[in-house]
């Protein structure tokens, strides 16, 4: 059995991981895993089922039984489209809370690994390189300053009609960074074997080209 190669893109909220990962996957015709969507779906399913965010057993059961599918950029929950519904700030906040629970993370592990199929996978999240795909051929730590990330997220939310100030988003981002980095299970860290990509002053195109260039280097140095 040949295991498909993996490119792991980890980094903080709104650093551009999703956008860059999806573009890299498209360019290489690789599969794409948006692992954050699984935590967001767990949070949304919990809200819909009336499971509270302090009910660890309830949340673990929701994660285990999650009826989710990803079809060409469309995300389904219980057979209904949830692509937009999981992108709100409230669900992002809930996702960050359920993601701090070890049993919830365990319940989602096999589901994430199932995305590793030929010809290859690009996966984005917080622990792609550390926990889910530690054997990834290329690990990237994608980041940007909190101010730049708040601006990017603000633009996205305003375009969707959410009424929120940049100051509030900056506070949310800082709080989420702190929670994602300080938690004991699978914290967000820059691994020693990950390449740093600071996109603060980069366009999406530049970031995508950098990752593709790294991938070429990795491939040409393989025996
Ligand atoms: O878009 P943003 O980067 O804010 O979030 P996301 O990637 O959609 O993930 C939502 C939340 O899930 C994050 O705040 C993390 O706490 C959590 N997450 C995680 O713990 N591990 C992952 N591999 C991906 C997301
Ligand atoms: O997945 P993550 O939360 O890390 O970020 P994202 O949703 O991919 O990106 C957040 C926003 O920043 C999107 O609207 C991207 O188009 C934008 N972005 C950008 O303007 N410049 C970059 N170099 C990367 C992302």
Automatic annotation (TrEMBL):
Residues 7-212 form the Cytidylate kinase domain. Its EC number is 2.7.4.25. Keywords: ATP-binding, Cytoplasm, Kinase, Nucleotide-binding, Transferase. Its main location: cytoplasm. The keyword Cytoplasm applies. SUPFAM superfamilies: P-loop containing nucleoside triphosphate hydrolases (SSF52540). GO terms for molecular function: kinase activity. Signal peptide: none annotated. The keyword Secreted does not apply. It catalyses: CMP + ATP = CDP + ADP; dCMP + ATP = dCDP + ADP. It is found in: Cytoplasm. ATP binds at residues 11-19. It comes from the Bacteria. It is an enzyme of class 2 (transferase). Transmembrane segments: none annotated. Belongs to the cytidylate kinase family. Type 1 subfamily. PANTHER family: CYTIDYLATE KINASE, CYTIDYLATE KINASE/PANTOATE-BETA-ALANINE LIGASE. This is Cytidylate kinase. It comes from Chitinimonas lacunae.
């Amino acid at each position: 059995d040949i295991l498909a190669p993996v490119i792991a893109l980890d980094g903080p909220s709104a650093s551009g991981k999703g956008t860059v990962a999806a573009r890299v996957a498209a360019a290489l015709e690789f599969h794409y895993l948006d692992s954050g969507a699984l935590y967001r779906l767990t949070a949304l399913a919990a809200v819909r089922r009336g499971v509270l965010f302090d009910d660890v057993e309830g949340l673990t059961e929701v994660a285990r039984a999650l009826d989710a599918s990803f079809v060409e950029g469309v995300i389904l929950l219980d057979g209904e489209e949830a692509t937009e519904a999981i992108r709100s700030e409230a669900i992002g906040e809930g996702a960050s809370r359920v993601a701090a629970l070890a049993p919830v993370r365990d319940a989602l592990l096999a589901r994430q690994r199932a995305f590793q199929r030929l010809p290859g996978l690009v996966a984005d999240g917080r622990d792609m390189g550390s926990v889910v795909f530690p054997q990834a051929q290329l690990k990237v730590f994608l980041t940007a300053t909190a101010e730049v990330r708040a601006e990017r997220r603000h633009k996205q939310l305003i375009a969707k009609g959410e009424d929120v100030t940049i100051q509030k988003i900056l506070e949310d981002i800082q709080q989420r960074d702190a929670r994602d980095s300080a938690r004991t299970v699978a914290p967000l860290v820059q691994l020693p074997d990950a390449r740093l990509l600071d996109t603060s002053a980069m366009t999406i195109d530049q970031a995508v080209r950098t990752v593709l260039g790294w991938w070429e280097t990795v491939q040409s140095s393989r025996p």
